[in-house]
Amino acid sequence: MQPVIIFTVLMVVAIALAVGMIVQGHGCNRLEFWIRRWFVKGEVEEQVPEQIQHTAYYLMLELGDLLESDKDIEQYYGVKTVFNHVSALRAQTLGCSDQTTIPMRPEAQASFLKVVK
To answer: What is the pLDDT of residues 50-62, one digit of tens each?
Structure first.
């Protein structure tokens, strides 16, 4: 009798985990959306468009490359540039009307330092 009880408990736990993954997951099929609507009341979240996902992925890769650099000043300006790109992407996704300008890289900017004797 004990193996039947243990098997039943394990099956209930496995089904609960599967339902939990469906409710918290994304990219679901029709049956999974039906299960999600049955458990979660309210609006089902819509997926992020692929263009935004790709842009965010490349921003993350660029940030990783910048942080691996040995030069501190390159890291500083690179992280600043990536932050501006992320801010512009966020404004674009939230639908803000003002266009944020993204500054050029430090090597493309003119130098304003003067040598004083």
So the answer is: 888 888 888 888 8
- What's the CA gap between 26 and 12, in Å, rounded? 23
> Residue 105 to residues 19, 60, 98, 116: CA-CA distances in angstroms?
48, 17, 22, 26
Which residues make Cβ contacts (< 8 Å) with residue 85, sequence separation at least 6?
Answer: 59, 102
* Whole-angstrom Cα Rg for the chain: 25
Enumerate residues 6+ apart whose C-beta is below 8 A from 86: 59
> pTM score, two decimals?
0.44
How far is the C-alpha of 82 from the C-alpha of 10, rounded, in Å? Answer: 47
